[in-house]
């Protein structure tokens, strides 16, 4: 167990991200998804991460179903809000106005079937709303008992500092993996200065670092990797070559590529909690194995030789999406 930041809740050293059970990675089996959540909690995972826009509410309803046989006080539920979507699933922007936040949280509480959310965070910065106004509204929800803690997602160091001046921010959710290390330059130092933890998503880079991806894998409709730069043409070839180099390191340790990739993120500091997006019990079991893997200095050197910093081919999001990430500015 670890503590999220200097003021946050105690959570497991690994969290479960639920997005792929409802959205963006193609079809998922609901019964297997619920079984995977149950298996995660039974294995000691207490941090469950969702978003009100994952499947347009479907993900929260899925979690509600799983919670029917889970002690609510035993888990920490993290919810992202504010992303606007149309009936076709398209993205329409971000709304972080105080009135909208109160509306979003009311719907999330009802869908989840709970009287409070442990960590509540805007999915992205809303350029039309000062971060101070957003965090101020969230602080009112903390005071009223509807949420317990405030988190942020994909914001830069400057925005994080402005937010923390209004109310403690327990964690910043941001992409961090062997293929995405931009957080190390300014954002991670700022978070540590402020006592804010990092919940790292994309630790397997959308499956690239899972060790299971193949060049000829067909993507189903609705799988956003079909437009992700790292999965296109020569970029994919170069990235899979990096994975094969990492596989050699994993083979020498007698573990899987995914376990090495997750363990590397975990080894970056006690204040970093990886979120794994396992959609099946088999993938969950593999991810859990990373918790038993202790990397030596020699291991870390071999890993970084296999995948040097900035070695990834292609950006982590398409250009249009990167433009909306405060963390990239």
Automatic annotation (TrEMBL):
InterPro entries: Aldo-Keto_reductase (IPR050791), NAD(P)_OxRdtase_dom_sf (IPR036812), NADP_OxRdtase_dom (IPR023210). It comes from the Bacteria. It holds the Pfam family Aldo_ket_red. Signal peptide: none annotated. Residues 14-306 form the NADP-dependent oxidoreductase domain. Gene3D superfamilies: NADP-dependent oxidoreductase domain (3.20.20.100). Keywords: Oxidoreductase. This is Aldo/keto reductase. It comes from Actinophytocola glycyrrhizae.
